[in-house]
Write a structure and sequence with these properties.
CATH superfamily of one domain: Cytochrome c-like domain
Low-confidence stretches: none
Mean pLDDT: 87
Helix content: 40-55%
CATH architecture of one domain: Orthogonal Bundle
CATH topology of one domain: Cytochrome Bc1 Complex, Chain D, domain 2
Structural class: mainly alpha
Order of helices and strands: HHHHHHHHHHH
Number of strands: 0
Strand content: under 5%
């Protein structure tokens, strides 16, 4: 009797399904727990969206939309005037040894493919189009053949930098020391140069042409200041006491 009832119920259900399908296609509802294509996560190496790649790999240091955080603002229009796509690609690929900038290329132990790095470089360059820089031509990204002089750098520092960073770079009420040995151990000469030229808008640091009203640093003066700062580095950064033999 039970088997007969189950068979009757089964036939009735089939009949209802067939009747419901008359004149229109039969739709099968998604079962609970069945994953949809959108639920399947994209493999990190398959991500091709610039915003997602930047957020995952760069925003932690360079800030949301490249506006700066612990590291230089990549969307800074002055910075984008002086840096080339090849340089951005190289730094992203290989990192900067001796600094906090890691390598991101898979071939160098990172997490991004070469094509993903190309997408990031192109996206960063688009920021320059969105906010074009104006004003005088800044000094070049790299020092090139210009040789720095620490004594001249000290003089240039006094003229252009001391009002904010304090005497001998040891800090002021609102700005920390830029000759701190731990700080200097974590930044490269190129990073110092880029900051002097492009400034740090996210921290109120002016660029090379706005440190002193009506007077901009020359390429030589930028190189000299970097040389002066580099001479403040210590072989034992962060250690204020002589090491015992």
């Amino acid at each position: 009797m039970i088997h007969l009832r189950q068979s009757f119920i089964g036939i009735a259900v089939i009949g209802l399904l067939l009747t419901a399908g008359c004149g229109r296609p039969l739709t099968i509802p998604t079962l609970p727990g069945q994953p949809r294509p959108s639920d399947v996560p994209i493999k990190p190496q398959d991500v091709t969206d610039f915003a997602q790649l930047y957020t995952l790999n760069c925003a932690g240091c360079h800030g949301t939309d490249g506006k700066g955080s612990g590291a230089l603002a990549l969307a800074n229009p002055v910075y984008l005037r002086i840096v080339s796509d090849a340089t951005i690609s190289k730094v992203t690929t290989l990192g900067l040894p001796g600094t906090l900038m890691p390598a991101f290329a898979l071939s160098a132990g990172g997490s991004m493919t070469d094509s993903q790095i190309a997408i990031v470089v192109s996206g960063i360059r688009q920021w320059a189009t969105a906010t074009p820089a104006v004003g005088p031509t800044p000094p070049p990204y790299a020092a090139g053949a210009v040789t720095g002089d620490a004594a001249r750098g000290a003089t240039a520092y006094t003229t252009f930098c001391q009002s904010c960073h304090g005497p001998e770079g040891r800090g002021a009420p609102k700005v920390g020391s830029i000759v701190d040995t731990s700080f200097l151990a974590l930044v490269s000469d190129q990073s110092l140069r880029s900051t002097i030229i492009a400034g740090r808008p996210d921290r109120g640091h002016p660029d090379w042409s706005h440190c002193v009203e009506g007077q901009a640093l020359t390429d030589q003066q930028v190189t000299d200041v970097v040389t002066w700062l580099a001479n403040q580095r210590s072989s034992t950064p962060g250690n204020p006491y002589p090491l015992k033999p």
